Protein 1
Amino acid sequence: MNKEEKSQIELLLDENNTDNLKLYDENNKETEFEQVAVIPLNEKIYAILKPVTKIVGVNDDEALVFVIEEIDDEDCLVIVDDAKIVDEVFKEYYELLKAEGINVEE
């Protein structure tokens, strides 16, 4: 990776970047995601990402929650499958939208 190229996490955390992210699973299969929001919560950083590429078991109108975790000294985006945490992240997201004056249907 050259110095000019930013990691997907750096792109995610860059407030000026709204480009889609390309994430790879353990089988090196690429999935493209639209950035919805970055939510700091409980001393972790979560991301709400909406798949652009079709994912089996995920509806077209659904978004997924990822958390930034350090794995082998490298920051990685890991999907959150704990429903309680997912609910907390979305609740925080809706609160932020309301604070911006955006009406939200929960």
Note: The mean pLDDT is 89.
Protein 2
Amino acid sequence: MFMKICLTVLFMLSVSPIQPGVAQPLDVNLTVYGGSIFFNNPEYDSVVLVEFPFTLNRNEFSFFRPDSSDTNYFARIFAQINLFNTQGMVIDSNKTYFSAMIPGLESASITGYKLFNKLSLLLKPGVYSARLTVIDAVSKKEGQFFYDRLVVEPPVKKQLAIGAVTLAYNIKWVGDNPTDNSLMVTNGFKVLNCPLSIFSSHDTSVYLYAEIYNLEYSPEVPSQYRLTYQILTDSNRVFMNYGSREKDKPGSSAVVTEMFDIKGWLEGIYTIQLTATDLQTQQSDTTLVPFRIFTPLSSRTFTSGGISSADPYDSLSLEEKVNLVAYLLTPTQKHALDNLNEQGKLNFLDQYWKEHDENISTGIIENRLKMIERYRFSNQYFSIENSRQEGWKTDRGRIYMTYGPWEEKEEISAPVLGNPYVIWYYHSLKEGKLFVFEDREGYGDYRLVHSNVYGEIYSDEWKQRLEAGSTELY
């Protein structure tokens, strides 16, 4: 595999001072790749276990020998997750110390090796943000990963549901007695998470971990559940169909692991579609898990004309660049940005996009280009003023910039009764999401009045109208 694997080992020792022969990386900061996994297990009752897996580049750390009798070299690493509420206040945290070992200094500078670890928190349903900080305890170098918006939904207690979905470089059964980092073991499986769900074309496999909750189970009445897998392309077409398989229920919940052979797959975005069905109750749930395959720069074939360096971001004003991240920053980040001078803001934004580049191999920040397109579309079509510059501030602009283009739209500009409205449907989001916008003043200023997205505005009236199968008032 392209991504070589180096497991980390937990430790609770004090850090030794730097000694002769320590490998000193040249990079100023550490690169941190972070993700989040939501265990909406009803057994937790009213809280949700949220894991924050992360990977690190081994060659960015300093290695040393703790004493002359040990021929191995070690890096000492500290990691902490801070959780923020919507006001930007720290309300919870967790931390760990761990070490990485190499047999000799010649291994320290080799690229491609990853260190794996994770932290976890038990959270009440709500909307949060978080910051993961990693520090090399020897060199004091630091790296961070920001979680802009963490929406923790309540556990589903009566309907079959799929949760704890994550992709990994490798999954292996180790049982209840792992010999290495126990933090990487979930229900007996050692899971080497891929936090950003980005794989190299040199990788040969993508591993999936998930859990199924609320199966109808009785030890006296054996029964089964069915798993169905498909791989979709970025145009939502079926790329591969893996069919269905039936399994005996181990209890009211079950662990799902699967390996997909991606050797030879072209660069692009794919989606794993997993459907779980309880054959006894016929309840089912479907989850969509996107991932990207990229070709490393060293493997690319370039034309004589090279690659265009033109980036529309460079043509934006400072105000537009700030507007671009309005719905991405945490309250703490917004406060910090507002208090900087012009050059400080530019530096802050450059660093933000560098840390949030979803595909660092291309030299292009694709998700920033996507946000520019959403920003311009919002201004063009959702603005109320003639300047066409404030559409991004509207409710429709916020939802469009956050979730992207709708997959289906229902628009009633002249209802029999009531006000004009529009409904955006996002069927591919878990369980299907929707947003209802109503023009109550009649000036084209459509305000969000209902959504089934946790943390957004909710209306019983609109829920009943939708459930009735008609949104018209008579």
Note: Residues 366-382 form the longest helix (17 residues).
Protein 3
Amino acid sequence: MELKTNPEVESVFLKYPDSVRDKMLNLRRLILESAEELGLTSFEETLKWGEPSFLAKKGSSIRMDWKAKSPEQYAMYFKCTSKLVPSFRLAYDEIFAYEGSRALVFKLDEKVPESELKKCIKAALTYHQVKQLPLIGL
């Protein structure tokens, strides 16, 4: 897989507090693993609104961030007008915490449900191929 990375992304990760950085890097790892498992040939890691973001040619963008105003949590954001988060809620209502139709929210002191999250990530990375499927193929 060809990964095109904006060099400014690393500086954003370095600015996170130590207690948050490993959590954010873990989300990044899950996104990159999911892209690799899907066999994506090209993938872009960049910044959108100053937040680490990931773009696939036939997918919907994924962003992630931690905000000082909510220091006990961090989140993975999806396009709010897509079917992504509403479908995640139907498939995994009790597994994730949600912020409207735009984000999966994680507490710093909780373990991320990696298997289910990777399914969500893969749905986002292939969104334009799966958006017509029931529950977007979850």
Note: The first strand starts at residue 2 and ends at 5.
Protein 4
Amino acid sequence: MTRLAALILAYLCLALAVVGVVLPGLPTVPFLLLAAWFSARGSERLHRWLYAHPHFGKLLIDWESQRAISRSSKVIAVIMLVASWAVMYHRISNVWVLIGTAVFFIAMAVFLISRPEPNR
């Protein structure tokens, strides 16, 4: 992979992570992890900035060192999953889409809840 492609993908993933902070249904952490991975291959400056960021850095360091997710992040993520599904329930009439989304959201919640919390 070229440095330029990695840099473009890092910024794209970072943008999606930032949008995911405010938009229910769009995950933040997976895009943030991808941004960190791509930035390590495309821009040492961006990579250092991500790890030094007051909010993103903590998430990245906890995940990289312990594969851990903080309790507050878990709570917010599960609340957002429930809220997203509730909005879909009121706007989508296709029962199979609702069932499929519910199964996917439940699997995501189980994964999140099963991750350890970071040791401080």
Note: Residues 68-120 form one domain.
